[in-house]
Amino acid sequence: MPRSAFPSRTAALALLACAAAAAQNAGPLWPEGKRAAVSLTFDDARPSQIDTGLPLLGRLGIRATFFVSPHNLEKRLEGWKRAVAQGHEIGNHSLTHPCTGNYSFSRNNALEDYDLARIAKDIDEAQEFIRKQLNVTPASFAYPCGLKFVGRG
Q: What is the pLDDT of residues 103-119, one digit of tens each?
């Protein structure tokens, strides 16, 4: 190891160790002293999420994250605006919801046929659509079909 690199690496490790120790001593920062949380998420902007899910979540006082795709968002736009007003998070779920071509419904929009530029464009266009329609900018993304690959590699 070059001698000049040693002090900066040592300093970085020392800072990391101090931060870890401080975090252990501080304890979790949960509201009202709670010790755990559950995250509820829903994908695809299905109509049932507006018709059934929102009223149920409202009665229970629960907030959720909804990962939406523009095509389904348009079908119940007023309902999704209501979801935002009620404090639910809206996440990005892509513009065209590409999945593997192994699924018959996705053979004409298969992730295997995408490259990084194409999926980036798909996600960016969904982001802009959601921002314009709901006046929120999604901070989270859920992979369509839970798939984390692009292309055939």
A: 999 999 999 999 999 99
pTM for the full predicted model: 0.75
Mean pLDDT of 87-91: 97
DSSP state of 68: E
Q: How far apart are CA 56 and CA 60, in angstroms?
A: 6
Cα distances (Å, whole numbers) of residue 57 to 49, 51, 63, 86: 10, 11, 7, 10
At residue 76, the 3 state secondary structure works out as: coil
Strands 65-68 and 89-92: parallel
- Is residue 64 within 8 A of residue 88, CB to CB? The reply is yes
Using DSSP, state whether 62 is helix, strand or coil. Answer: coil
Give the Cα separation of 103 and 115 in Å (integer): 19
Note the residue count of the chain. 153
Q: What is the mean pLDDT of residues 28-57?
A: 88
Task: Tell me the backbone φ, ψ of residue 12, rounded to 5 degrees.
Answer: -65, -45
Give the whole-angstrom CA distance, residue 77 versus residue 72.
9
Roughly how many angstroms between the first and final C-alpha of the chain, as a whole number?
36
